[in-house]
Amino acid sequence: MEALYLLIPLSTLLVFVAIWVFFRASDSGQFDDLEGPAMRILHDDDAPSTEDVVGTP
Q: Could you write out the DSSP letters of every residue in the chain?
């Protein structure tokens, strides 16, 4: 029973710290563009360069 006197405040503090970290990351723009990097890989230029087509003599 005495352990609860320590564990409940510590868990409450841990929850508030986790919420603070989440909101700080959100305010700094961490979650602004989630689809940009995923779409960038799909639009990658896979065409061969002109050096590959012409070749070097």
A: -TTHHHHHHHHHHHHHHHHHHHHHHHHTTTTS-SSHHHHHHHT---SPPHHHHH---
Question: d(Cα 46, Cα 48) in Å, to the nearest integer?
Answer: 6
- 17's tokens: 């710290």
- The angle at the Cα of 16, spanning 10 to 21, to the nearest 5 degrees, equals 125
Asked if 31 contacts 25 with a C-beta cutoff of 8 angstroms, the reply is: yes
Per-residue pLDDT of 1-53, as tens digits, reads 899 999 999 999 999 999 999 999 999 988 888 788 778 777 766 666 666 56
